């Protein structure tokens, strides 16, 4: 594992940049555990202070330090995004591979569910869940809902990869070598599906974070828990742009862009690394 | 005589085309033949692409069901093999060899994984030493050993070696029948002979019957006992190899026979000059 | 600059049309720090005369395709020319493939055409066949649309294809017809030099002879030279004037077809010829033992030594040079002894 990281850092500039960026943002987010003030405390600092030596990124109209708010916000937003991505990847892989490999009735059944979910509009469903859950609405519930909405396209993609793998000679050979279905899927097919998982994970993460921001900006989330979307929501509430409190909006947006950039670079370079063709070349094929 | 494999008037149709121009393709038409259980032989199916030979092989392996007719293996209908247990039992007696040795093994999996899996599942072996012993024994039959194969990937071995490992793997359960679909078409002339020689040996020393599917008449002549020639799903000629390939009587088999160029510059170039004059 | 081709002086006829000298082309790769160099073409020298069909034989992954790609100037990274040169002579004008890139580009299709391995599948599946002709050949021929169409049609007719195929899509044609088409495509400009990789391997047996006759006929009519690659020795027997045998990236033997088949001088060639099956003969053939060499880490000395029945100590350390012997050339320390064996 360590060796892979070292190789990637040394020989792949995209990975190196992505890694440094993501790591920096991660450390910055991690720092919120040592914040001088609790992140939900308001009006403890002088409001509307521009960036200065004391408050690097300024303070909000609610008397919070933008720097520490951002630290918490990125942490929470990443937590949400990654939860959605991991959950939805597991769903997509399970459904896509089983559907593609078993085919027949299984395929029909799973793909019917899949296509029905594709047809459902995301935002209205989330709002519906929000109104039904009301007080019990917490970020894990939101993450679960988003995960349930975010796997369908990718399941189709993975299904098509598995479908083509199923007709390869090595799969038929594996059957006659007595391998069970789980053995075939995990040992034989997963390495080929891995790049798809990574590739779609990136898109999914961006989608999830975007979703979180959208919902928060609209005020449909736990607004007392700092998130990137939440910060923008409060800034809007206080008409920060009009009032010239640009730092309240600009810094969170820059943070999101850098985060996306870092993750994107990581995704493409790791993808190249785990691609079966490049793996084979490194093995000396 | 008791039959190892019987095909009785086997037909297979495929529906082809889109929504508007649907039609039926008769891939295999009225194919019947029987292999004797007591007399192992190399039974060759010759044909061009699209002649129905691969479909026939897939039906024998139970991967495809015939539209009509029956296939029986050791007295039992192949279509009646349903449960996982029956299927495993069937697979332990009938094993395939695939066309492209580089495609038949997953390049990201070590080769021994296929061998060990076969030994575990079909011989019910649990103990590591027993699995190794069974695998090594099978590899010895094809002139290899476990020491040479353990931990290796497909790209580390030649096509001929891979095809021999595939044969060794097929031998582990102690099959009665091996179905080899174009096993040499992807390997070049020098490796071709090592594989077909191996088939001869399996027949003579282990008593395994082999269905050898090919479009290459020269190797067919070299190793087969009996031959059938297929053309567009029909068997146009069947019989002993020397007769069918040496003196074909059906028009199509004659055409096929004369399409084979001999590896002799004098004769081969004369044939081409003849063709050229005809154009 | 190549306009003078039409009225070539008689003296150039005698000069070889292609000279390959000390050619080395390697696949050079770098995968996350794992550097690999596959020496697919290693020190190959050969010449091809006008009006000659030269066949290159060798086992799979011996570097045949790489060699021919390099000769055609159609290489892309990671394959790179490391040393040596490829020079054509079109009507007295010398053309160095790797020194004169732009001139080379201009010579494509007009003087030189290249039929790739599996090229019967290169026709664009969603465009009619006539577009392929237009794309590849139109600008090289300097004809009006109408003249061009007429020329293409008469050309197709000559190679036994109904001109109506121009209006069809590739999938509507059989494999044999597609292969004829690619040959038609490669020859419509009447190039002086044709390069072909496995031109008949993917074909059904029944059409193979026709396609071979077609290639031979086109070559004879236009007086061009052909270099082609295949591992199928019967194809060499049928149409090649001379054969070169490649083993592990090196040319190990070369000579007139008949001599190579009847009196092979290199142990590898001898084995290759002896192992060919013939209808009417069931005598047991001995297969070559051992494993084909890994071109990323080839054996030292003579690359055939781990599998060679005649190998001696010298073979392990010293690489035998390709020297003229009898009617051809051979690279083996014990060349004379093969014939006796
Ligand atoms: N794009 C590539 N990148 C790296 N190595 C390659 C590439 N293409 C070919 N090779 C390697 O170069 C060597 C020669 O390959 P080449 O395709 O020239 O063989 P060939 O003789 O034409 O084989 P065949 O008969 O199978 O067509 C092989 O070891 C092959 O693995
Ligand atoms: S040089 Fe030596 S090893 Fe090479 S072919 Fe000749 S005898 Fe064999
Ligand atoms: Mg090739």
From TrEMBL, chain A:
Every ABC transmembrane type-1 domain range: 74-267
Any one of the GO BP annotations: transmembrane transport
Membrane-related topology note: Multi-pass membrane protein
InterPro entries reported for this sequence: MetI-like, MetI-like_sf
Keyword annotations from UniProtKB, A to Z: Membrane, Transmembrane, Transmembrane helix, Transport
Keyword Transmembrane attributed: yes
Location of this chain's protein in the cell: Cell membrane
Transmembrane segments: 12-35, 78-104, 116-133, 139-158, 192-220, 241-268
Signal peptide: none
Tagged with keyword Membrane: yes
This protein's GO CC annotations: plasma membrane
Recorded superkingdom: Bacteria
Family: Belongs to the binding-protein-dependent transport system permease family.
PANTHER family: OLIGO/DIPEPTIDE TRANSPORT, PERMEASE PROTEIN (DPPC-2) (PTHR42729), OLIGO_DIPEPTIDE TRANSPORT, PERMEASE PROTEIN (DPPC-2) (PTHR42729:SF1)
Official protein name in the record: Peptide ABC transporter
From TrEMBL, chain B:
InterPro entries, alphabetized: AAA+_ATPase, ABC_transporter-like_ATP-bd, ABC_transporter-like_CS, P-loop_NTPase
Domain named ABC transporter: residues: 5-257
Stored CDD domains: ABC_NikE_OppD_transporters
GO molecular function, one term: ATP hydrolysis activity
Family that this chain belongs to: Belongs to the ABC transporter superfamily.
Keyword tags: ATP-binding, Nucleotide-binding
Name of the protein this chain belongs to: ABC transporter ATP-binding protein
Natural source organism: Devosia riboflavina
Record has ATP-binding as a keyword: yes
């Amino acid at each position: 594992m360590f060796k892979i990281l070292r190789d990637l850092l040394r020989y792949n500039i995209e990975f190196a940049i992505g890694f440094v960026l993501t790591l920096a943002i991660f450390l910055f987010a991690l720092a919120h555990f040592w914040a001088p003030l609790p992140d939900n405390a308001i009006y403890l600092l002088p409001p509307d202070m521009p960036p200065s030596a004391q408050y690097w990124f300024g303070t909000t109209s609610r008397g919070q330090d933008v720097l520490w708010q951002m630290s918490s916000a990125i942490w929470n937003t990443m937590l949400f995004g990654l939860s959605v991505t991991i959950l939805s990847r597991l769903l997509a892989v399970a459904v896509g591979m089983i559907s593609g490999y078993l085919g027949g009735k299984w395929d029909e059944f799973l793909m019917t569910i899949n296509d029905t979910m594709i047809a459902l509009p995301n935002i209205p469903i989330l709002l519906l869940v929000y109104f039904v859950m009301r007080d019990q609405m917490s970020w894990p519930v939101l993450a679960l809902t988003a995960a349930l909405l975010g796997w369908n396209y990718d399941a189709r993609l993975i299904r098509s990869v598995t479908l083509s793998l199923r007709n390869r000679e090595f799969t038929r050979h594996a059957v006659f070598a007595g391998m069970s279905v789980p053995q075939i899927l995990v040992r034989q097919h997963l390495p080929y599906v891995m790049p798809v998982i990574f590739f779609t994970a990136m898109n999914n993460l961006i989608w999830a974070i975007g979703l979180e921001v959208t919902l928060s900006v609209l005020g449909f989330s736990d607004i007392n828990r700092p998130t990137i979307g939440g910060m923008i929501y409060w800034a809007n509430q206080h008409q920060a742009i009009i009032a010239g409190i640009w730092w309240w909006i600009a810094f969170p947006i820059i943070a999101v862009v850098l985060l996306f950039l870092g993750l994107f670079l990581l995704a493409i370079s790791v993808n190249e690394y785990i691609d079966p063709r490049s793996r084979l070349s490194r093995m000396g094929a | 005589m008791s039959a190892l494999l019987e095909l009785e008037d086997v037909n297979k149709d495929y529906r082809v085309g889109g929504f508007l121009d649907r039609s039926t393709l008769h891939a295999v038409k009225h194919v019947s033949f029987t292999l004797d259980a007591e007399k192992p032989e190399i039974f060759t199916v010759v044909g061009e692409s699209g002649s129905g030979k691969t479909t026939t092989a897939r039906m024998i392996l139970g991967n495809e069901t015939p539209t009509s007719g029956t296939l029986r293996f050791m007295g039992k209908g192949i279509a009646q093999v349903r449960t996982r247990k029956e299927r495993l039992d069937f697979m332990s007696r009938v094993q395939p060899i695939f066309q492209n040795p580089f495609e038949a093994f997953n390049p990201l999996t070590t080769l021994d994984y296929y061998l060990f899996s076969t030994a575990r599942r079909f011989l019910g072996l649990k103990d590591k030493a027993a699995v190794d012993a069974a695998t090594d024994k099978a590899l010895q039959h094809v002139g290899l050993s476990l020491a040479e194969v353990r931990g290796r990937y497909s790209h580390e071995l030649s096509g001929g070696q891979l095809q021999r490992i595939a044969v060794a793997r097929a031998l582990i359960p102690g099959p009665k029948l091996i179905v080899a679909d174009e096993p040499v078409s992807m390997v070049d002339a020098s490796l071709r002979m090592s594989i077909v020689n191996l088939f001869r040996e399996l027949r003579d020393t282990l008593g395994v019957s082999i269905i050898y599917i090919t479009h290459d008449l020269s190797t067919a002549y070299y190793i087969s006992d009996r031959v059938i020639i297929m053309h567009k799903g029909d068997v146009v000629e069947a019989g002993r190899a020397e007769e069918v390939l040496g003196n074909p009587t059906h028009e199509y088999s004659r055409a096929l026979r004369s399409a084979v160029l001999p590896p002799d510059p004098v004769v081969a170039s004369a044939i081409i000059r003849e063709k050229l004059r005809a154009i | 600059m190549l306009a003078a081709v039409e009225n070539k002086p008689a003296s150039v006829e005698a000069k070889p049309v292609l000279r390959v000298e000390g050619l080395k082309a390697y696949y050079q790769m770098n995968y996350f720090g794992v550097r690999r160099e596959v020496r697919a073409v290693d020190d190959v020298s050969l010449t091809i005369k006008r009006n000659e069909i030269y066949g290159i034989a060798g086992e799979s992954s011996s570097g045949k395709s790489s060699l021919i790609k390099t000769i055609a100037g159609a290489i892309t990274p990671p394959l790179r020319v490391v040393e040596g040169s490829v020079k054509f002579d079109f009507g007295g004008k010398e053309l160095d493939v790797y020194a004169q890139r732009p001139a080379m580009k201009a010579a494509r299709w007009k003087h030189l055409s290249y039929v790739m391995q599996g090229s019967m599948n290169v026709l664009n599946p969603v465009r009619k066949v006539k577009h392929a002709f237009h794309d590849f050949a139109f600008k090289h021929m300097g004809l009006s649309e109408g003249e061009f169409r007429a020329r293409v049609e008469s050309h197709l007719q000559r190679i036994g294809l109904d001109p109506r195929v121009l209006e069809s899509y590739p999938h509507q044609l059989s494999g044999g017809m597609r292969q004829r088409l690619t040959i038609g495509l490669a020859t419509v400009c009447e190039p002086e030099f044709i390069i072909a990789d496995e031109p008949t391997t993917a074909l059904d047996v029944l059409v193979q002879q026709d396609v071979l006759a077609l290639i031979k006929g086109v070559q004879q009519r236009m007086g061009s030279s052909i270099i082609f690659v295949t591992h199928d020795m019967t194809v060499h027997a049928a149409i090649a004037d001379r054969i070169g045998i490649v083993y592990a990236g090196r040319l190990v033997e070369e000579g007139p077809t008949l001599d190579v088949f009847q009196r092979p001088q290199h142990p590898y060639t001898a084995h290759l010829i002896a192992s060919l099956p013939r209808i009417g003969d069931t005598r047991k053939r001995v297969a070559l033992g051992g494993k084909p060499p890994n071109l990323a880490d080839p054996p030292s000395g003579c690359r055939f030594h781990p599998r060679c029945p005649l190998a001696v100590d010298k073979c392990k350390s010293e690489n035998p040079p390709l020297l003229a012997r009898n009617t051809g050339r051979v690279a083996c320390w014990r060349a004379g002894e093969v014939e006796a064996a």
